[in-house]
Amino acid sequence: MKTTFDRKDGGLVLAHILFAFGALLIGGIAGLLQGLVKGGTITLPANIGYYEVLTAHGVLMALIFTTFFIIGFLYSGLSHTLGGSLLPLVRKLGWAGFIVMSLGTIIGVVVILLGKASVLYTFYAPMKASPFFYIALALVVIGSWLAGFGVFYQYRYWKKNNHGKLSPLFAFMGVMTMILWQIATLGVALEVVVQLIPWSFGWVDTVNVMLSRTLFWFFGHPLVYFWLLPAYICWYVVIPKVIGGKIFSDALARMSFVLFLMFSIPVGVHHQLMEPGISHFWKFFQVTLTFMVVIPSLMTAFSMFATFEMNGRAKGAKGMFGWLKVLPWGDVRFFAPFMGMLFFIPAGAGGLINASNQMNAVVHNTLWVTGHFHITVGTAVVLTFFGIAYWLIPVITGRTLTKRLNKLGMIQTVLWCVGMFLMSSGMHIVGLLGSPRRTAYSTYNDHPDAILWMPYHVAMAIGGTILFISVLLMVYNVISLLRTPKGETEYPIGEVSEQAHPTPRFLENWKLWIVITVILILLAYTMPILELFDSSVIGSKGFVTW
Ligand code: HAS
Ligand code: CU
Prior knowledge:
This protein is mainly alpha-helical and about 550 residues long. The protein has a single domain (about 5-530), classed as Cytochrome c oxidase-like, subunit I domain (Cytochrome C Oxidase, Chain A, Up-down Bundle), CATH 1.20.210.10. The chain is about 70% helix and about 0% strand. It contains 15 helices and no strands. It has helices at about 5-40, 50-80, 90-115, 130-160, 170-200, 210-240, 250-265, 280-315, 320-325, 330-355, 355-365, 365-395, 405-430, 450-480, 510-530. Helix 2 packs parallel to helix 4, helix 6 packs across helix 12 (about 365-395) and helix 12 runs antiparallel to helix 13. It is globular, with a radius of gyration of 23 Å. Copper (II) ion binds near residues 221, 224 and 270. Keywords: Electron transport, Heme, Iron, Membrane, Metal-binding, Respiratory chain, Transmembrane, Transmembrane helix, Transport. Belongs to the heme-copper respiratory oxidase family. InterPro entries: Ba3-like_Oxidase_I, Cyt_c_oxase-like_su1_dom, Cyt_c_oxase-like_su1_sf, Cyt_C_Oxase_1, Cyt_c_Oxase_su1_BS. It comes from Candidatus Cohnella colombiensis. It is a multi-pass membrane protein.
């Protein structure tokens, strides 16, 4: 394995990472504004709508920041672990994907800021945006497919040249993440191309609302694992190296990713439990599969504890929690992802609550759900991505992480945790008190319940402001990382523990996993989707509610 990073690949990776942080900055400004509005602290100028800002925030943070960062990270890991550089064709696909996605992003953001697409990041019909908003989204998806093809091509090439060898764990996980993405995006592509674009152009009058939402969640749930799996790659592969330990089990890590592929798609209906049009049986069926997809996360938790414990014992730690003491607390490459893991414990528990039909009735469409996704994707995932950026940028630019920047990184992480703790706790509690999500400031004619919510909304605004400071510091850190002294920084890839069992070869049987995945999808979705074509379903015309 080469120690220095291929310069050309570095350029491609850096372009993705910097674009991602640009999106984070603009998305962060939008987040600050809407937090302050909701807390009753400011009012927006008359020509800027709350839902416009909210759409910009959701799209830029959840869809753009994540997708660019993930593709950059996966390409870096593929380049490093599969031969030391990307094939020229793969690099071309990467750049083509980058250009198409960037174009989509720019068109999308312009349309949103023109006030023509205040439909939020889930763009639920029958709210109707400008057709160019949907076209922009389609471009982002097509660009990501090009990047995905690059990932598959690089992997296949390596496999052909390393016949019979087990692929590196990072590469295996990267391919799994992209297969998941490729299958999941078929749902949203169908929704956008077949339903929303013709409807928003006025070529057809009505849209089948439930079908569009079902296709959306076919994509929308696995989307959250598309965010999570790259963070898990860091937890499984990078963190053991950073703490000076070993990967607990290669086989377990691969198995958990196989389970994610199988079970993360046929479960989207758990976002529609409170909606009519899907029968109880299929809701029950998909909720059962939802509980299956929790298992690989529990395996991950187990594996992380085992890695920490083994590492501790090897360094002479004693007692039940002695392993905690020997972890590198002052190293932001460890500290940021670790705080992400910690947040993910209550975040995952919240997910189990959401997925339980009766409890979903209490939390659905309340701020509880907003709290849930700010500690899953907004903390567990994002803090891990930040942790990655602190070493990845030096690796690809041939620089080093200075002590000063490491310290600033620690401060930035602490700010994120404090801000998010305030904001997400406020959201969870006030959600249980009934405060709805996706609503601008209102005291509902001074209704006593709504008055009761206000202190929590203020706490959210304070938390949001602290988070914004953390975003600013992160962007400052990213820019500073481009100017640190030249030097060699290692790409941290852990080795598997000697005590681990050898990895069974069937784990790389891609055909088998894809066939099982397709069967599960057909089982879970064929009937519910056919039911939505029932002749009694009437379509809806479009509404511009803003
Ligand atoms: Fe979720 C809604 C169910 C995980 C994101 N989710 C959302 C939305 C988003 C989202 C964005 O069933 C809102 C969509 C919208 O706008 O409407 N979610 C789940 C379940 C899980 C789950 C069952 N969600 C995630 C992840 C996300 C994410 C991950 C992003 C990355 N979610 C739901 C449901 C809804 C929902 C319903 C719809 C709600 C509604 O009504 O609208 C599970 O995958 C969670 C499993 C996780 C665990 C935790 C394992 C813990 C680990 C950490 C170990 C820690 C260590 C450190 C090692 C069981 C791995 C320890 C150290 C020490 C010192 C202690
Ligand atoms: Cu989900």
